[in-house]
């Protein structure tokens, strides 16, 4: 297939693009960066660079400013929203204008879609509790779902915390542990719904390949852990001298609303639909995932 990827130069895209090439696909990558084309990848800065004759069989939409990129203020929250809604809206208009439309759209979302539910186990039918992240994800998914009305099979990827050695959340979480200090936030009872980046990529290829799969899918490992459970698992792969909590009030003072939404609250999200479809995780539990990540 020829696949159009937005956000393909980010943390997930860095692993996804090589996997797509290895599977024999040709790529068109929409990026704000100026990059040189290769034999199997064409880089464009705008959808208008694609001619009417350019065949696109699938679209993977990963574009969006990082939720944890900086402290949230009104300006950055607007950037978070606009970076997702603008490109998704442009993609829908572009799909609608095509005489030959793509067969499938995979559009990123996040488990923030559910809001915060304490210890409640959340599958794809989980209820929603309003908040900034919840409202963002709901609007983002609603924009992407317009592709389905245009006859395009649409999968919404509700991503958990994606872990790997060379970027993303792990790079921000690991430094204290590497110094021998194990920590967790607040009570440590809040849930962390995580997934290894290898499984994110494999799940995307799985969803691309099966024409019967559509709708929302939680891209999280089958076994979420608490914040304290994560610290204990890290203690199995790092030599710790001390373990202690980071008070929630300290995180609020340092990071404001972002701390409350992303770190202090949590969600216990499980990938029921993905597993029911037959997907098998390479890293289903955190001990396996961290052992691989730390050894890399």
Automatic annotation (TrEMBL):
Q: Pfam families in the record, alphabetically?
A: DUF1731 (PF08338), Epimerase (PF01370)
**Residue ranges constituting the DUF1731 domain according to the UniProt record:** 246-293
State the InterPro entries in the record: DUF1731, Epimerase_deHydtase, NAD(P)-bd_dom_sf, SDR39U1
Domain named NAD-dependent epimerase/dehydratase: residues: 3-218
* Entry similarity comment: Belongs to the NAD(P)-dependent epimerase/dehydratase family. SDR39U1 subfamily.
What NCBIfam families does the record point to? yfcH (TIGR01777)
The name of this protein is TIGR01777 family protein
Higher taxonomy: Bacteria, Pseudomonadati, Pseudomonadota, Gammaproteobacteria, Cellvibrionales
């Amino acid at each position: 297939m020829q696949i159009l990827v937005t956000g393909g130069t980010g943390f997930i895209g860095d692993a996804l693009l090589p996997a797509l090439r290895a599977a024999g696909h040709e790529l068109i990558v929409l990026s704000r960066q100026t990059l040189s084309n290769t034999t199997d990848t064409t880089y464009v800065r705008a959808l208008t660079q694609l001619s009417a004759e350019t065949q696109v069989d699938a679209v993977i939409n990963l574009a969006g400013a990082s939720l944890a990129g900086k402290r949230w203020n009104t300006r950055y929250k607007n950037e978070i929203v606009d970076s997702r809604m603008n490109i998704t809206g442009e993609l829908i208009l572009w799909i609608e204008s095509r005489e030959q439309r793509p067969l499938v759209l995979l559009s990123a979302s996040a488990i923030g879609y559910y809001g915060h539910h304490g210890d409640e186990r959340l599958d794809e039918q989980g209820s929603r509790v309003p908040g900034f992240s919840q409202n963002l994800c709901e609007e983002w998914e609603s924009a992407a779902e317009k592709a389905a009305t245009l006859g395009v099979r649409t999968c919404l990827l509700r991503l958990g915390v994606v872990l790997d050695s060379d970027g993303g959340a792990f790079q921000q979480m690991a430094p204290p542990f590497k110094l021998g200090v194990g920590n967790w936030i607040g009570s440590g009872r809040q849930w962390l719904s995580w997934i290894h980046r290898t499984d994110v990529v494999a799940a995307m290829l799985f969803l691309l390949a099966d024409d019967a799969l559509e709708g929302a899918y939680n891209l999280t490992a089958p076994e979420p852990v608490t914040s304290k459970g994560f610290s204990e698992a890290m203690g199995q792969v790092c030599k710790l001298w001390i373990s202690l909590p980071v008070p929630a009030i300290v995180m609020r003072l340092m990071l404001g609303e972002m701390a409350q939404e992303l770190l202090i609250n949590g969600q216990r999200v499980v990938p029921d639909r993905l597993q029911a479809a037959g997907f098998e995780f390479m890293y289903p539990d955190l001990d396996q995932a961290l052992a691989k990540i730390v050894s890399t």
